[in-house]
Amino acid sequence: MSLKKVLITGASGLLGRAIFNEFNANSTWKTLGLAFSRPGNHLKKVDLTNFDEVKAVFDEFKPDVVIHSAAERRPDVVENQTDATKQINVDATKNICILADDMKAWVLFISTDYVFDGTNPPYDVNSVPNPLNKYGVSKYEGEKVALASSAENSVLRVPILYGPIEKLEESAVTVLFTKVKVTDTKCTMSNYERRYPTYCPDIAVVIRKLSDERMKNPDIKGIYHWSGDENMTKYDMAVGMAESFDLGIEHIEADNKSSPGAPRPYDAHLDSSRLDNVLQVPRTPFKSIIKDVLKPFYP
Ligand SMILES: NC(=O)c1ccc[n+]([C@@H]2O[C@H](COP(=O)([O-])OP(=O)(O)OC[C@H]3O[C@@H](n4cnc5c(N)ncnc54)[C@H](OP(=O)(O)O)[C@@H]3O)[C@@H](O)[C@H]2O)c1
């Protein structure tokens, strides 16, 4: 049996590394992971904003599936770097989709719940996006490019992510622990916006299984959502972390106002039912795994 080939962009990132590990551990796939500033660990260095570099990879590897996870995903950075963000989140997506279409490869574009304004959850795959910040706008533009390039392509929207990390600052969830673990210093945590923290290795299983399914079933196309199902504020997550390590929570103060910086949706809960109807992947409960994720960074 010839192996199917999957090309993963952003394979050095928080989600991309989980996707890379999931495909790499599966013997029915030949996997190529791309990175930019963090190559190594079998990842190939490619600047996705350079068309010639990307074309050379496609010509050599000839993927059947492209999981496009690379992006600038920090909303407050995007607010001040709109041109650079457009290059990676939109223009690079367009080039990847053109090259993929040439070789009839299926593209899965990873997107975000931030395409929604958060006023009327839950959001299903037919809900109309209305992003509140420039990051959400850039990802919505990327989605439109991916879906317009080929009716075969897919978009997978996911919410706030956590998982195995190289440093706490890599995830908007784990970064909270920098303050949670310093119990003699008061801190405030947002207790306003509702979030659904989702474990990256779970999403990686979803993506690998959806890719398996797509290889058999051409009806796998269009928009999908997949989300954890625990409704938490950042304050709830911080308390969960403290309790996992038997730390006090007296130093953590709940802040009931909206978060500063780029505007964020209040509650962009994603309805995952379209994907759950195709395949069932269990959702790892936050409290069952957060200590394992954070242990390398404690004390
Ligand atoms: N993190 C979240 O909470 C979250 C929530 C919803 C949706 N998403 C979406 O999920 C996807 C993955 O996010 P993430 O958290 O894994 O992001 P991340 O950890 O910030 O990783 C970003 C990845 O993009 C790569 N990259 C950036 N610029 C590049 C360029 N010019 N050429 C090649 N590669 C480049 C980076 O490579 P190097 O590091 O090697 O430079 C890195 O692998 C994104 O599409 C994001 O919009 C994320």
TrEMBL record:
CDD domains: dTDP_HR_like_SDR_e. InterPro entries: dTDP_dehydrorham_reduct, NAD(P)-bd_dom_sf, RmlD-like-bd. Residues 5-297 form the RmlD-like substrate binding domain. GO terms for molecular function: methionine adenosyltransferase regulator activity. It comes from the Eukaryota. One of its GO terms (cellular component) is methionine adenosyltransferase complex. GO terms for biological process: S-adenosylmethionine biosynthetic process. Pfam families: RmlD_sub_bind (PF04321). Pathway: Amino-acid biosynthesis; S-adenosyl-L-methionine biosynthesis; S-adenosyl-L-methionine from L-methionine: step 1/1. PANTHER family: DTDP-4-DEHYDRORHAMNOSE REDUCTASE, METHIONINE ADENOSYLTRANSFERASE 2 SUBUNIT BETA. Heterotrimer; composed of a catalytic MAT2A homodimer that binds one regulatory MAT2B chain. Heterohexamer; composed of a central, catalytic MAT2A homotetramer flanked on either side by a regulatory MAT2B chain. NADP binding increases the affinity for MAT2A. Regulatory subunit of S-adenosylmethionine synthetase 2, an enzyme that catalyzes the formation of S-adenosylmethionine from methionine and ATP. Regulates MAT2A catalytic activity by changing its kinetic properties, increasing its affinity for L-methionine. Can bind NADP (in vitro). Belongs to the dTDP-4-dehydrorhamnose reductase family. MAT2B subfamily. This is Methionine adenosyltransferase 2 subunit beta. It comes from Lottia gigantea (Giant owl limpet).
